[in-house]
Specification:
With 609 residues, the chain is of the alpha/beta class. It folds into four domains: 3-192, Tetratricopeptide repeat domain (Serine Threonine Protein Phosphatase 5, Tetratricopeptide repeat, Alpha Horseshoe); 209-332 and 511-578, Rossmann fold (3-Layer(aba) Sandwich), CATH 3.40.50.2300; 333-402 and 445-508 and 588-609, 3-Layer(aba) Sandwich (Rossmann fold); 404-444, no CATH class. Helices cover 49% and strands 12% of the residues. α2 (26-38) runs antiparallel to α3, α4 (60-75) runs antiparallel to α5 (79-92) and α7 (115-122) packs antiparallel against α8. It comes from Roseivirga pacifica.
Length: 609
Amino acid sequence: MGIMKRYFLALLLVFSFSAQLSAQNVKQIFEEGKSLFDQEQYALAQGKFAAISALDQENDMVRYAAYYYAISAYRADDAETAKNMFLQIKERYPYWEPDEMNYWLGFLNAKEGNPQESFEYLALVKNDSLAQYKEAIKKSALAAETEIDVLEQMLGEFPQEGAIASRIAELILEKPVEQQDINRLMSLEESYELKIDLGVEGIESSPKKSVYNVGLFLPFYYRSDSASLVRVERNWTSRMYYGAQLAVQKLEEEGIKVNLIPVDTRDARKSLAKMISEGELDSLDLIIGPVTESSINEVNAFSKEKQINMINPLSSNSEIMAANPFAFLYYPSNESIAIKAANYAKENFRKNKNAAVFYSGFSDKPRADLYRKLIEEDSFNVTIFEGVLPNESVKIQQLLLDEEEVDRDSIAVDLMMAEMDSLRAAGEADWEIYSERDFVYDTLRILPDSLGHIFIASDFSSLSTSALSGIDARPDTIEFLSSSRFLTAEQTVSFAQLERVNSAFTGTNHINYGKPQVTEFRQRYLNKYYTNPVREERLGDAYIGYDIVVSFGRLLHRYGKYFQVGLKRQDKIPGELTDFLEYKLSNDNRYIPYMKVRGAKVEIIEEKK
């Protein structure tokens, strides 16, 4: 029934009952209405109360009739009539139960999505026993308001209302990260004691600066003698520094200023510990590196104490991040790679669930161990689990191709013996037509079709190359899975072979050399240093130096010193040379797509849902 129709029906009831009131007992009608109200017959109760509330009298019976009429209207889904009646009660009886009337008007305005009016009425409610219910109504009223400007205006009128501040913060956090007003969030958090999770432990704001100091912590080993300088020029650390310098120039062209400070972690003249103790590094906004174990431990402690973000550019060791929320890995951790690889195996290698896992040593073993654990939980059987040093990687190929002597089937042997016995019985002089070697045959030690797939839990290309060569030479089909880190421009394994054996990879900071940004970088490097950049296998190089400084320099510019404020709220962000970086769930790069070689190109493949 429409509102207007119900309104006219109520008027008819009022006139009808008013005409009878002179002949009937008002108290009786009230009791009849109250009885209907208690039985939740609200529409009928509303008719009884309407007649009494319309009387031009001032007594409790009339006031309560109007009160119950309003509640009955609300219970009968006629909130507008209820609201109008409460307004009439306030006007006719301004000193009668003001808290009750204002409470109901605050509630009904909240229901209608009028937070401003709701707050105005609730502000007039002085009864402390209603405080808890008032807060619930306020939150309900604010939930309907999505305009930050409207809420800011309301907060100006009700500056003590933390619920409004909380709703403003909530709406700011719902915006895309680059549009979020971090300073306003911090102001609201401080003024109203809100708990706003910015994803940064112990950090209250992310200051923006005109120039960011970025330290590049590498074992340069600078010395003054010319022979040493020549060696340094040819070192991977110098090439990484050259890439970082080009990145600084690139950022400057975009209006982003970075002060790149190389720090030699092997400089015997001034130890890293001394630089830290004397406060020389306190002004840094970001640390890239270091890469040696002792330096990592030293700088990690410094980074945590001074709350300076550090990015390890080479390692997949998750222990670097374990106790320091300001420590990041440029690459995915061993554990992240293992989880992603295991998921691929479970989806794609189900025909033959026997597996071999190879790793290069102590640093790779966590990846191998977790991979083994995860697939064996899914009924895979890891029949080979071996550590193979990079300089001994040929062992993998040999293991796949080694043969052994096996006795022939006894029936075949009996037939061969019977044949020779027959010749000898016939008097043939050359009856020994079979030699001792004829009674055995050579076969692969790893029998054909006995192994479903091989997982290389290492980024050393020699292990993958050896495994691929062995797989390629076998008569059966063995699937190959590894991380893509060894797929460099200067790799020894051919794309044709990778495609031929249907190899699959978990993408780890893979660089697509057809990307325009890569072409631009290579041209910059050639113009500056008169040579092409070299892509290293596991060490740093110009590509890494350039990608990290450009990508994280932009993050500093966009989000301030604690760029994780933005990283923690986005699924992924674009890298400069790499496709994407993803740090939403962890401090290691979780962007790990699946990849295959197709048409002599590395392509990202769709994940199975």
